[in-house]
Design a protein that fits this description.
Pfam families: EFP (PF01132), EFP_N (PF08207), Elong-fact-P_C (PF09285). Pathway: Protein biosynthesis; polypeptide chain elongation. One of its GO terms (biological process) is peptide biosynthetic process. With about 190 residues, this protein is an all-beta fold. The chain has no helices and 16 strands. A 6-stranded antiparallel beta sheet has the order 1-6-2-3-4-5, with no helix packed on it.
């Protein structure tokens, strides 16, 4: 058993008869009243996100997890197939376990958290950013750049991303996997 002082991003806990991963947390110490921890929890079984507040010193049930590097092989319907980089063992995970499945390119390495009690995968941590090639981009209209003008572009995985007007087909762009937003153009 742990307490609220052990809460950190990525911690997996048992809560309300389900397994949750802590996405965000904030320790709050108001001027009047006891301290508390405001958290945002993501269910690892259903993918739902909920907000919860723990009072200071509240006991939480932490789940022991191991993290392994897996390589993404290919999608098949709602199943995504991965291979363990050390043992070459293959697993398939449902699409709703992944944070940004539309940004996964074949060969991308991800970190998979596995419950040590049941040996079942709990969550997949994507790299902070991915570099993908633009396969379709609408032409930018000249003189349309008074403010941060963006246009929709499709990348090689099929995801749609808002990009600046100067991005063209064939350009490689860096995308933030947490928000799915454009970061920068990559020169090669």
């Amino acid at each position: 058993m742990a307490s609220t002082s052990d809460i950190r991003n990525g911690l997996c806990i048992k809560f309300n008869h389900d397994i949750y991963k802590i996405i965000e947390f904030l320790h709050v110490k108001p001027g009047k009243g006891p301290a508390f921890v405001r958290t945002k929890l993501k269910s690892l079984t259903s993918g739902k996100v909920l907000d919860n507040t723990f009072s200071a010193g509240h006991k939480i049930d932490v789940i022991r997890v191991e993290t392994h590097t897996f390589q993404f092989l290919y999608p098949e319907g709602d199943e995504f197939h991965f291979m363990n980089a050390e043992t070459f063992e293959q697993i398939s995970l449902n699409k709703n376990i992944l944070d940004a499945p539309d940004l996964l390119k074949e060969g991308t390495n991800v970190m998979v958290q596995i419950n040590t009690e049941t040996d079942l995968p709990l969550s997949v941590d994507m790299p902070a950013s991915v570099i993908l090639e633009v396969t379709y981009a609408e032409p930018g209209v000249k003189g349309n750049t008074a403010t941060n003008a963006t246009k929709s572009a499709t990348v090689e995985t099929g995801a749609s991303v808002n990009v600046p007007l100067f991005i063209n087909e064939g350009d490689k762009i860096k995308i933030d996997t947490a928000s799915g937003s454009y970061m920068e153009r990559v020169k090669e």
